Amino acid sequence: MNLGPRFNRFAKAAFFATVLTVSHVICQGSASAGGVVIQTPVGLQGTDKFRIIFVTPGTIQATSSDIKTYNDFVNSQAAGATYEGATIHWSAIVSTDTVNARDNIGLTNSGVYMADGTKVATAANTVPGGLWWGDPLLADPVKDLNGNTYSGSVWTGTCGIGTEYVTMALPDGSNTKILASWGAGNSTNFTSGGISYANQVEVGNIGGGGYSWVSTGFVTLNTSALHVYAISDVLTVVPEPSTFMISGLGIFMVGFAQKLRKRNGNASLDS
After folding, report:
1. Would you tell me which of 28, 77, 181, 220 could form a disulfide with 56, CB atoms 3.0–4.6 Å apart?
2. pTM of the model
Protein backbone atom coordinates (compact mmCIF):
# COMPACT_ATOMS: atom_id res chain seq x y z
CA MET A 1 0.00 0.00 0.00
CA ASN A 2 1.33 3.45 -0.95
CA LEU A 3 0.93 5.71 2.12
CA GLY A 4 2.76 8.63 0.54
CA PRO A 5 -0.25 10.69 -0.69
CA ARG A 6 -2.19 10.10 2.50
CA PHE A 7 0.76 11.04 4.67
CA ASN A 8 1.40 14.13 2.54
CA ARG A 9 -2.15 15.28 3.19
CA PHE A 10 -1.71 14.56 6.89
CA ALA A 11 1.55 16.50 7.04
CA LYS A 12 0.04 19.49 5.29
CA ALA A 13 -2.93 19.46 7.66
CA ALA A 14 -0.59 19.26 10.63
CA PHE A 15 1.44 22.16 9.29
CA PHE A 16 -1.58 24.40 8.85
CA ALA A 17 -2.83 23.40 12.30
CA THR A 18 0.46 24.45 13.84
CA VAL A 19 0.36 27.72 11.90
CA LEU A 20 -3.10 28.41 13.28
CA THR A 21 -1.93 27.51 16.79
CA VAL A 22 1.07 29.82 16.51
CA SER A 23 -1.14 32.59 15.21
CA HIS A 24 -3.46 32.09 18.16
CA VAL A 25 -0.59 32.22 20.65
CA ILE A 26 0.85 35.35 19.06
CA CYS A 27 -2.46 37.15 18.68
CA GLN A 28 -3.96 36.10 21.99
CA GLY A 29 -3.99 39.09 24.29
CA SER A 30 -3.80 41.64 21.48
CA ALA A 31 -7.50 41.70 20.75
CA SER A 32 -10.75 40.84 22.47
CA ALA A 33 -14.37 41.23 21.55
CA GLY A 34 -15.27 41.72 25.20
CA GLY A 35 -12.94 44.50 26.29
CA VAL A 36 -9.47 45.03 27.74
CA VAL A 37 -7.19 41.99 27.59
CA ILE A 38 -5.14 41.67 30.77
CA GLN A 39 -1.52 40.68 30.19
CA THR A 40 0.52 38.56 32.58
CA PRO A 41 2.63 40.90 34.74
CA VAL A 42 6.33 40.79 33.88
CA GLY A 43 8.24 38.34 36.05
CA LEU A 44 5.35 35.97 36.67
CA GLN A 45 5.53 32.53 35.12
CA GLY A 46 4.50 28.91 35.46
CA THR A 47 1.39 28.80 37.59
CA ASP A 48 2.00 31.99 39.60
CA LYS A 49 -1.12 33.70 40.89
CA PHE A 50 -1.97 37.39 40.87
CA ARG A 51 -4.83 39.89 41.08
CA ILE A 52 -5.57 43.08 39.18
CA ILE A 53 -6.80 46.30 40.78
CA PHE A 54 -8.36 49.29 39.02
CA VAL A 55 -10.42 52.38 39.73
CA THR A 56 -13.68 52.76 37.86
CA PRO A 57 -13.77 55.47 35.17
CA GLY A 58 -17.44 56.05 36.03
CA THR A 59 -18.91 57.21 39.33
CA ILE A 60 -21.75 56.07 41.57
CA GLN A 61 -23.58 57.26 44.66
CA ALA A 62 -23.07 55.37 47.92
CA THR A 63 -26.73 55.34 48.94
CA SER A 64 -27.16 51.56 48.71
CA SER A 65 -26.31 49.33 51.66
CA ASP A 66 -26.31 46.23 49.43
CA ILE A 67 -22.75 45.18 48.50
CA LYS A 68 -24.12 43.64 45.30
CA THR A 69 -24.83 47.15 44.03
CA TYR A 70 -21.12 47.97 44.06
CA ASN A 71 -19.98 44.57 42.82
CA ASP A 72 -22.35 44.84 39.87
CA PHE A 73 -21.15 48.39 39.21
CA VAL A 74 -17.45 47.51 39.04
CA ASN A 75 -18.13 44.51 36.81
CA SER A 76 -20.08 46.71 34.41
CA GLN A 77 -17.23 49.22 34.47
CA ALA A 78 -14.74 46.48 33.57
CA ALA A 79 -16.73 45.99 30.35
CA GLY A 80 -15.90 42.31 29.90
CA ALA A 81 -12.15 42.49 30.49
CA THR A 82 -10.52 39.10 29.96
CA TYR A 83 -7.42 37.11 30.86
CA GLU A 84 -6.38 34.15 28.70
CA GLY A 85 -9.73 34.31 26.93
CA ALA A 86 -11.87 34.13 30.09
CA THR A 87 -13.97 37.03 31.38
CA ILE A 88 -12.69 38.28 34.74
CA HIS A 89 -14.95 38.67 37.76
CA TRP A 90 -14.39 41.73 39.95
CA SER A 91 -15.26 42.72 43.52
CA ALA A 92 -15.69 46.23 44.86
CA ILE A 93 -13.28 47.36 47.59
CA VAL A 94 -16.18 48.69 49.63
CA SER A 95 -17.58 48.14 53.13
CA THR A 96 -21.24 48.34 54.06
CA ASP A 97 -22.99 47.92 57.41
CA THR A 98 -23.10 44.15 56.91
CA VAL A 99 -20.08 43.31 54.70
CA ASN A 100 -16.48 44.42 55.21
CA ALA A 101 -14.34 45.22 52.17
CA ARG A 102 -11.69 42.61 52.96
CA ASP A 103 -14.36 39.94 53.27
CA ASN A 104 -16.00 41.04 50.04
CA ILE A 105 -12.76 40.73 48.04
CA GLY A 106 -11.31 37.81 50.01
CA LEU A 107 -7.95 37.69 51.79
CA THR A 108 -5.37 36.19 49.44
CA ASN A 109 -1.58 35.99 49.31
CA SER A 110 -1.10 36.66 45.60
CA GLY A 111 0.45 39.93 44.43
CA VAL A 112 -1.79 42.80 43.36
CA TYR A 113 -1.04 44.65 40.10
CA MET A 114 -2.55 47.32 37.90
CA ALA A 115 -3.45 46.41 34.33
CA ASP A 116 -0.22 48.05 33.10
CA GLY A 117 1.82 45.61 35.19
CA THR A 118 2.65 47.97 38.08
CA LYS A 119 2.73 46.09 41.37
CA VAL A 120 0.81 47.90 44.10
CA ALA A 121 0.79 45.37 46.93
CA THR A 122 2.43 42.10 47.92
CA ALA A 123 -0.96 40.57 48.67
CA ALA A 124 -4.61 41.34 49.29
CA ASN A 125 -4.00 40.59 52.93
CA THR A 126 -2.75 41.94 56.26
CA VAL A 127 0.88 40.94 55.61
CA PRO A 128 3.61 43.60 55.29
CA GLY A 129 3.11 45.42 52.03
CA GLY A 130 -0.39 44.00 51.70
CA LEU A 131 -3.50 46.03 50.92
CA TRP A 132 -4.61 45.91 54.56
CA TRP A 133 -1.20 46.31 56.18
CA GLY A 134 -1.48 50.09 56.09
CA ASP A 135 1.35 50.90 53.72
CA PRO A 136 0.87 49.11 50.41
CA LEU A 137 2.96 50.07 47.41
CA LEU A 138 0.47 52.63 46.11
CA ALA A 139 3.02 55.25 45.13
CA ASP A 140 1.05 56.14 42.01
CA PRO A 141 -2.69 56.68 41.61
CA VAL A 142 -4.57 53.49 40.84
CA LYS A 143 -5.49 53.66 37.15
CA ASP A 144 -8.47 52.33 35.24
CA LEU A 145 -8.05 49.32 32.96
CA ASN A 146 -7.12 51.55 30.03
CA GLY A 147 -4.33 53.30 31.93
CA ASN A 148 -6.20 56.53 32.64
CA THR A 149 -5.55 58.28 35.95
CA TYR A 150 -7.96 60.11 38.22
CA SER A 151 -7.67 62.24 41.32
CA GLY A 152 -9.81 63.04 44.32
CA SER A 153 -11.99 60.85 46.50
CA VAL A 154 -13.19 57.29 46.01
CA TRP A 155 -15.93 55.47 47.90
CA THR A 156 -14.63 52.81 50.30
CA GLY A 157 -16.77 52.90 53.46
CA THR A 158 -13.81 51.30 55.18
CA CYS A 159 -10.83 51.96 57.40
CA GLY A 160 -7.25 51.05 56.56
CA ILE A 161 -7.51 47.44 57.72
CA GLY A 162 -10.40 46.68 55.37
CA THR A 163 -13.31 46.88 57.78
CA GLU A 164 -16.05 49.40 58.40
CA TYR A 165 -15.25 51.91 61.12
CA VAL A 166 -16.58 50.90 64.51
CA THR A 167 -14.54 53.21 66.73
CA MET A 168 -13.12 56.71 66.46
CA ALA A 169 -9.85 57.89 68.03
CA LEU A 170 -10.12 60.75 70.53
CA PRO A 171 -7.45 63.41 71.21
CA ASP A 172 -6.48 61.72 74.49
CA GLY A 173 -5.61 58.51 72.64
CA SER A 174 -8.68 56.58 73.70
CA ASN A 175 -11.36 55.26 71.35
CA THR A 176 -15.08 55.82 71.37
CA LYS A 177 -17.63 53.66 69.65
CA ILE A 178 -19.17 55.33 66.64
CA LEU A 179 -22.92 55.31 67.01
CA ALA A 180 -23.41 55.68 63.27
CA SER A 181 -21.51 53.73 60.62
CA TRP A 182 -19.52 55.22 57.78
CA GLY A 183 -20.07 52.30 55.44
CA ALA A 184 -21.67 52.58 52.01
CA GLY A 185 -25.40 53.12 52.27
CA ASN A 186 -25.16 54.86 55.65
CA SER A 187 -28.44 56.60 56.42
CA THR A 188 -27.94 57.48 60.08
CA ASN A 189 -26.83 60.63 61.86
CA PHE A 190 -24.34 61.27 64.62
CA THR A 191 -22.88 64.31 66.33
CA SER A 192 -19.21 64.90 67.00
CA GLY A 193 -17.72 68.10 68.38
CA GLY A 194 -21.06 69.80 68.13
CA ILE A 195 -21.30 69.00 64.41
CA SER A 196 -24.10 66.77 63.13
CA TYR A 197 -23.26 64.33 60.33
CA ALA A 198 -26.01 62.76 58.26
CA ASN A 199 -25.76 59.99 55.63
CA GLN A 200 -21.97 60.15 55.54
CA VAL A 201 -19.64 57.50 54.04
CA GLU A 202 -15.88 57.09 54.46
CA VAL A 203 -13.78 57.95 51.41
CA GLY A 204 -10.25 57.22 50.26
CA ASN A 205 -7.82 59.30 48.24
CA ILE A 206 -6.91 57.93 44.81
CA GLY A 207 -3.15 57.47 44.91
CA GLY A 208 -2.84 58.20 48.61
CA GLY A 209 -0.11 56.45 50.58
CA GLY A 210 -0.50 54.44 53.77
CA TYR A 211 -4.10 54.09 54.91
CA SER A 212 -5.24 57.14 52.96
CA TRP A 213 -5.76 55.23 49.71
CA VAL A 214 -8.91 53.83 51.35
CA SER A 215 -9.34 56.02 54.41
CA THR A 216 -8.68 59.74 54.51
CA GLY A 217 -10.39 60.19 57.86
CA PHE A 218 -13.11 62.22 56.19
CA VAL A 219 -16.66 61.33 55.31
CA THR A 220 -18.76 62.52 52.39
CA LEU A 221 -22.49 62.75 51.83
CA ASN A 222 -23.54 59.45 50.28
CA THR A 223 -25.44 61.15 47.45
CA SER A 224 -22.17 62.40 45.97
CA ALA A 225 -20.96 60.61 42.83
CA LEU A 226 -17.48 59.12 43.26
CA HIS A 227 -15.25 56.42 41.77
CA VAL A 228 -14.85 52.93 43.27
CA TYR A 229 -11.87 50.59 43.49
CA ALA A 230 -12.25 47.07 42.09
CA ILE A 231 -10.09 43.98 42.36
CA SER A 232 -10.18 40.79 40.33
CA ASP A 233 -10.57 37.25 41.52
CA VAL A 234 -7.25 35.41 41.77
CA LEU A 235 -5.82 34.81 38.29
CA THR A 236 -3.40 32.00 37.47
CA VAL A 237 -0.68 32.33 34.87
CA VAL A 238 -1.27 29.87 32.03
CA PRO A 239 2.01 28.49 30.61
CA GLU A 240 2.04 28.90 26.85
CA PRO A 241 3.66 26.40 24.47
CA SER A 242 6.81 27.63 22.78
CA THR A 243 5.97 29.14 19.40
CA PHE A 244 9.39 28.04 18.17
CA MET A 245 8.67 24.46 19.17
CA ILE A 246 5.32 24.48 17.41
CA SER A 247 6.60 26.12 14.24
CA GLY A 248 9.62 23.79 14.26
CA LEU A 249 7.30 20.80 14.38
CA GLY A 250 5.41 22.16 11.39
CA ILE A 251 8.61 22.63 9.38
CA PHE A 252 9.75 19.14 10.30
CA MET A 253 6.46 17.64 9.14
CA VAL A 254 6.63 19.44 5.80
CA GLY A 255 10.26 18.41 5.26
CA PHE A 256 9.47 14.81 6.12
CA ALA A 257 6.55 14.83 3.69
CA GLN A 258 8.75 16.17 0.91
CA LYS A 259 11.34 13.44 1.47
CA LEU A 260 8.63 10.79 1.45
CA ARG A 261 7.19 12.17 -1.78
CA LYS A 262 10.60 12.07 -3.46
CA ARG A 263 11.16 8.50 -2.31
CA ASN A 264 7.78 7.46 -3.63
CA GLY A 265 8.56 9.20 -6.92
CA ASN A 266 11.87 7.35 -7.28
CA ALA A 267 10.15 4.06 -6.45
CA SER A 268 7.65 4.68 -9.26
CA LEU A 269 10.49 5.25 -11.76
CA ASP A 270 12.23 2.03 -10.73
CA SER A 271 9.10 -0.09 -11.12
Report:
1. 77
2. 0.75
